[in-house]
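Below is a typical protein record.
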Amino acid sequence: MATEEYYGNGNRDALGGERLNTAKTQELADEGKEQGDGKAERREGVPQKMQELMDNFHGFRSLRVGDIIEGTVMRVAQDAILVDIMAKSEGVIPSHEMQTLGPEGISRMKVGDKVLVYVVHGENKEGQITLSLDKAAGEKGWHTLEQLLESGDSFEAEVVGTNKGGLLVNALGVHGFVPLSQIVSGGPEVQGEASPEQRLAHLLGRKVTLKVIEMNRKRNRLILSERAALQEWRSQQKAKLLAELREGETRRGKVTGIRNFGIFVDIGGADGLVHRSELSWEQFSSPEEIVKVGDEVDVYVMKVDAETKRIALSLRRAQPGPWESFVAKHGIGQIVTGKITKVVAFGAFARIDGAIEGLIHISELADQRIGHPKEVVKEGDTVDLKIIRIEPEHHRLALSLRQARGGAEDRG
């Protein structure tokens, strides 16, 4: 049944509701009265207070504009819903007062459903009461939002629009706004110089978790924050993680930040720091050589400080140690290639396989007596060396340059 069948010329009063004055609307209301089994009519000339007493005697509810009450659906038409609200007359919800149902919402309504409605207009001369689902949801929403502001709890709201300043959301039936500075949801990259609306378009129709940061009921102002909600969630997750985390265990995480002093890894709601000294067994110039933001990595939990809420992690300790790998691949007497890394008075140090460093004692540098190792080698030299001793438990490796050269001469 079309809206015009219920409403006359569509004249609106100061509150924005349409006056219900057509014969069809009266017919609909009359049908409701028949189903209501003969509700009493107000008598002409009877004072209002006395009329209310009479209504109460008959079991009718006294209504005022602004009341929020529960009713029962008696009839569903295309553009209106007839509701029994225990008053002398049934109420009618026009289509423009049920937007919260959505495009297909009215089709899901059926006779007998309970609905919460707001009284827009009291009974007019035709005996009709105008109701609103939207205003009832809004009033209830404001009350709930006030409680959420006081408690600091987060909630979900649907994104219904965007503008150059941020997101427009339906927050429990109330129109709310999320400023750009309070949005953290990422989206696909937009080519060129995109407007804020284009960058936020991917959020339309989605639900986002928000927190109330400012509200003014009189000014109809509601400011929300996704950033604050995320911070609250991460704080809760961090507290939970700190209670569960144990030193010595290995966790899977995602690299969230890279600094010169190390990297930050999210291990499930909290970021831990991997100091640059714990990034790799091998030498490197910058942390960017080891990982990049977004990489998923295994990390070893070194320390958990519940008081300062800091977590120390290690990337290299979550990987097989270089000594384990070295011992598995090398043995005493084997000839290896090494790079001289340091020359000291008692010998020289050489790096093998990029991670293991061994000592060439001064007595193992040459067959003849020398005054200082620099007479034979210098930093940066690449030489063949013979492994003469391995002490993995002490991380010690003894090498010989003269024996490697003597062996080569024997083979030559």
